[in-house]
Amino acid sequence: MTGHTLPRAAILTIGDELLKGERVDTNSAWLARHLTRSGFRVTEVVSVGDPPEEIRHGLREARAVVGEGGLVVATGGLGPTLDDRTRDAVAEEFGRELVEDPELLAELEARFRSRGFDALPTPNRRVARVPEGARLLPNREGTAPGLVLEEAGIMVVLLPGVPAEMRHLVEGPFREVLEERFQGRGGAGVPVVRSIRTTGIPESALAERIEDLLSDTGAVNLASLPSVLGVELVVSATGPDAQRSVEEMMDTLLRRLEPWVYDAPSGDLAEAVLLRMRASGWTVAMAESCTAGLVSKRLTDHPGASEVFLGGVVAYSNTAKEALLGVPEALLREHGAVSAEVARAMARGACRRFGADAAVGITGIAGPGGGSETKPVGTVAIWTVTPHGETGGVERFPGGREEIRARAAQHALHGLLQVASNPWARDG
Amino acid sequence: MTGHTLPRAAILTIGDELLKGERVDTNSAWLARHLTRSGFRVTEVVSVGDPPEEIRHGLREARAVVGEGGLVVATGGLGPTLDDRTRDAVAEEFGRELVEDPELLAELEARFRSRGFDALPTPNRRVARVPEGARLLPNREGTAPGLVLEEAGIMVVLLPGVPAEMRHLVEGPFREVLEERFQGRGGAGVPVVRSIRTTGIPESALAERIEDLLSDTGAVNLASLPSVLGVELVVSATGPDAQRSVEEMMDTLLRRLEPWVYDAPSGDLAEAVLLRMRASGWTVAMAESCTAGLVSKRLTDHPGASEVFLGGVVAYSNTAKEALLGVPEALLREHGAVSAEVARAMARGACRRFGADAAVGITGIAGPGGGSETKPVGTVAIWTVTPHGETGGVERFPGGREEIRARAAQHALHGLLQVASNPWARDG
Question: What is this structure's pTM?
């Protein structure tokens, strides 16, 4: 991977709740993504607690990591309560006074009057005290403005921790500051970033197919982000030819990886399936055993799923497979619950019972118990029925219970997408 | 909150994907919660990229923050690929050699042979090279073991970044190491830690009931960890009276919060329900509309669920509610799909179709569309049927689609647990 030297950025999130694990810190990932896409190389994310000495320590660490010309974005601790100590800590760290900003004070007073208060409550008055020389970023979503300071060639931006306020400030008032300071003359420019998502191909097999591209990406950066559900490839570049270079790389990747690529606004394969079903005018139902509702849950994670998804049966017991999906008892006896035959009967039963055009049957052994010599833990039979035909078989997935179920659900969704996309799928 | 000095811990997460915001770092919050619950004060969370110099920097920062007697938990970068550099970086930072562990190597070779490989692939052989003197934590969920090192009085633990593997190691093999080192004789405080989990009571209402305890906890620490699913209260103390003080506080909390408290080894309410059902000798089925399989999925997250859970119907469409659960069309017309009447008919239908002793019917509007003046987004009807009687009604949950569904699923499980625990529940 090659590429240009990007300005460095560090993210500092502030709040005791982050250190107790009371809240997953989603601000960091959002900011990291935003800054990466804005042409920064994010070099560190640090979370510290509310005590001023911890905030000061975090600030020193973040500034040291980015160095001169860098950017530090801090979130949290700007509210009116006594445990909001970011303003004080930053003022102290930079040896600046906290001064009441008369304009901000007037604005806060007007806001509280309009809400029926006689006067600004004392705690809220604290919000108007800002470090000397700080530039204010007006906050339409809340009371505390963002604050921008420059110190020793490093830009430090303080933002509220409430995600909606933070995002509004970053996408609005802060954008101008960023462009002015980093993307003007001398800056690296805004990078062009695109990504494609793949599923159903192991990372190693994928890497083999694009080995030459990975070892020499030319003018673009190529990053591979694997997970249990698949591999995402992120292509980025900066400079005058960025757009063309990225498009060329995307074309090459799509050509080589076509059977495994899917596209969905959310990045979730389940959404790609819903979109494909809607385009085909098909309805869909699920017959799940070992995944026990996971595929249904994933399909319905997306608003509007009800236009396509009619429902599903979680047939955990054999009796349920018989009673609710009409799987013949003889089939269960002859082939066992975990067999392509039973998965097929489940899928066909779901189509029939729900009156759906398409369905998937999933039956397997997620473990830790229930495995045998011929059908070890991880064995999952998956069968897909669509108006285009049927396809399916018995898979063996690695990992523990959770991973096996996640992989089986993903495999089922991928199968459905593939048969739906290909009218010449074999008949079952 | 008062209390004693707790040993300090820092969390270091490693991986370029975290700095690009391509993945939300859920490991940190999980670890922070776990360590807080285990009696540590987590003082900092740091995320760095894959380059060895960044890992080394992060390691130095984390060690500096916890100081002697502290704990550093690092995740990520232990896999077989070339961008997994944690082993190398740590060895270099501590001036130790990387040595091939013959036992680990033999184990890896055996694993790959059993998967049909002739030999261990070269990249995977890297996993067997560990820093001299490191203690290995066996990883049943993946190939890379956890590694424990002691350096200058600080314990450094390296764990894989895959959440399932990380959690398995922390809850299993690492627990013993922790107890031995921090909670035994000579440990940095010998804390006694207990926790209780509550659900179905908002954090503010809970805080009101224990206001006096929160303002003066006497000899113990009392931490409140809220989430969408409920509030966990962690009680800890050190010193000679720790055991007694903690027990007393636990008794008081249990007395005051009894209707909302549940108990399960995994901390998951779904497991508490399974245990209660098993104890009662009941089987259970689900009839889900808006939660669309989420309750079924949660129940089956736990091995052995099949002894109790027979299955469920995800009845997303009205037709499915009629065809698969026998909900009368007239009832749907008269009361609407989101009504206590329909939820009840769904639950009864599930009992009948699956031949189950107990069932819950859930039907609601998760949004963003589908709300109305009288039934806004967040309206969810939940009805529980058990041999002890029936109970249910219409709830209104805050939040977006995901949160509403998570809250509805939790509420359904809580209802089931409550009716099952109380033979005098009202008849519906």
Answer: 0.77
